[in-house]
Write a structure and sequence with these properties.
With 84 residues, the protein is of the alpha+beta class. It is built from two helices and four strands. It has helices spanning 2-17, 52-59; strands at 21-28, 36-41, 64-72, 77-83. It has a four-stranded antiparallel sheet.
Length: 84
């Protein structure tokens, strides 16, 4: 019986500690893609340090051409912005 209780726990830990991407979004605008690139990654789910504005500011981008958002199974979020 103890082994049956361990299986759901092992599956939950695998999902929480895994680093696979569970969702990925790519959005483009009418602006040129450009050569500038900004990237931010959150430390945990729900933190405000990973956003489109923060990534654009970090890359020195004033006109956003595309946005890539990835949500990982461990709750982290990464945002990549390209533009001019």
């Amino acid at each position: 019986m103890k082994k049956l209780k361990f299986i759901p726990l092992a599956l939950a830990m695998t999902m929480l500690l895994g680093s696979c991407v569970i969702a990925s979004y790519h959005t483009t605008t009418g602006n040129p893609i450009g050569k500038k690139e900004g990237f931010v990654k959150s430390k945990n789910l729900g933190s405000s340090d990973a956003g489109i504005g923060a990534a654009a500011k970090k890359g020195g981008i004033t006109k956003i051409g595309s946005v890539d958002v990835k949500i990982y199974s461990n709750g982290k979020i990464s945002v990549k912005v390209t533009g001019e």
